[in-house]
Amino acid sequence: QVQLVESGGGLVQNGGSLRLSCAVSRIIFSFNIMAWYRQAPGKQREFVAHISTSGSTNYADSVKGRFTISRDNAKNTMYLQMNSLKPEDTAVYYCNTFVDKVAWGQGTQVTVSS
After folding, report:
1. pLDDT tens-digit readout, 60-98
2. CB 112 within 8 A of CB 14
């Protein structure tokens, strides 16, 4: 049973914007802090941002002020608005719970050209 589906990635120029979406199974979404992660080529997967069920957020220093995480509890969907993108943001982006992770989805590729 598919529980996490990421979408919205693509190719964008330096300084551009993208909005990622993560569709989540209701049972997971309703009771968990949700988070975005990313994995660049040759690097370990890293934390990007998380959001609680009540909407409290936290960001990695590398994206603070540029990325905005949000969630729509009625749609069981989480978003990541990414502005002022840089080439170093190039990665596969994944969503998952922040604690007690479930099986990872396929992610969505974000490529920022210089």
Report:
1. 999 999 999 999 999 999 999 999 999 999 999 999 999
2. yes
User: CA-CA distance, 9 to 103, in Å (whole number)?
Assistant: 20
- Average pLDDT (40-59) is 96
What pLDDT band is residue 2 in, cutting at 50, 70 and 90? low
The H or E element containing residue 61 is: none
Residue 47 in contact with residue 34, Cβ under 8 Å? no
For residue 8, with 0-12 CB atoms within 10 Å meaning exposed, 13-18 middle and 19 or more buried, which class applies?
A: middle
**At which residue do the structure tokens 């919205």 appear?**
8
d(CA 78, CA 16): 21
Do residues 84 and 15 touch, judged by C-beta distance below 8 A? Answer: yes
SS3 state of residue 88: helix
Decide if 15 contacts 88 (C-beta within 8 A).
no
